[in-house]
Amino acid sequence: MSIIKLLDDFSSEKLTTKSSSRREMFNTLGSFGKKAAAAAVPFGLATNSASASTMFFDHEGPLGLALVLEYLEAEFYMKALESGVLAPDSRAEKVYMQISKHEDAHVAFLMEALGDDAPAKPTFDFTAGGAFDPFNEGGIGQETAYAQLLALAQAFEDTGVRAYKGQAPNLMGTPYLEPALQIHSVEARHASEIRRIRGLKGWITGSMRGDGMPEATQAVYDGEENVTQGGVNLVTDLTYADEIVGDLTAAVTQAFDEPITGETAQAIAGLFIVSDE
């Protein structure tokens, strides 16, 4: 069953009700459901039929994945700026303008690095089959569209941060590890900036998505609750733990970002890629 069919049971009634409060609208976004996440359509990163599990041998696989994610982000920010949803001269518009330039630079670098092996740009559907209207093309209303625009940006950036980290080991011994890490740190800055515009902290706490994030984006945050690094449980195994004021577990999860696999990154991005099926 395609992602489009599975999204048919998502009701947008509350999203189009003008009287809905921002919190009510956030809660409606959160009802998107796990079925949509499970229905993500994996996308190809090469022209052959190799499976995702066999593609990540050298730099072409990791950089191909990165390029598709950068394609997605670059087009998203471009359309956001063209949509009129962002208030002119607002902080959000200025941030989106700058991030858009960064994403365009990332795309240019990765296309040059991959050359003839660069995957073609997919066709993106930022409504995820009608579940969202971030550019207010369907008349959902400026306030609701704006909230969706920020929530989707956060999900895309948080995905990028974890995906670059997950592919770093596959770039060991290639000349592309350093530039990939350079992009990774900038993606993290993007994520933090978007979170702060949304009124959130700049870091991820546990596996919590944050206020107003669709449940379908849970895969972006799964695993972030980890408190063991290098074989050391930083909550129970350190002598200074008793001296920490406040929630130590939350602080430890904030202190370390976790990687995600290429397959997970594909599934998340696949929600916004038009399937040929």
UniProtKB/TrEMBL annotation:
SUPFAM superfamilies: Ferritin-like
Top-level taxonomic group: Bacteria
InterPro entries: Ferritin-like_SF (IPR009078)
Pfam families linked to this entry: Ferritin_2
The protein's name in its UniProt record: Ferritin-like domain-containing protein
Organism from which the protein derives: Christiangramia sediminicola
Lineage of producing organism: Bacteria, Pseudomonadati, Bacteroidota, Flavobacteriia, Flavobacteriales
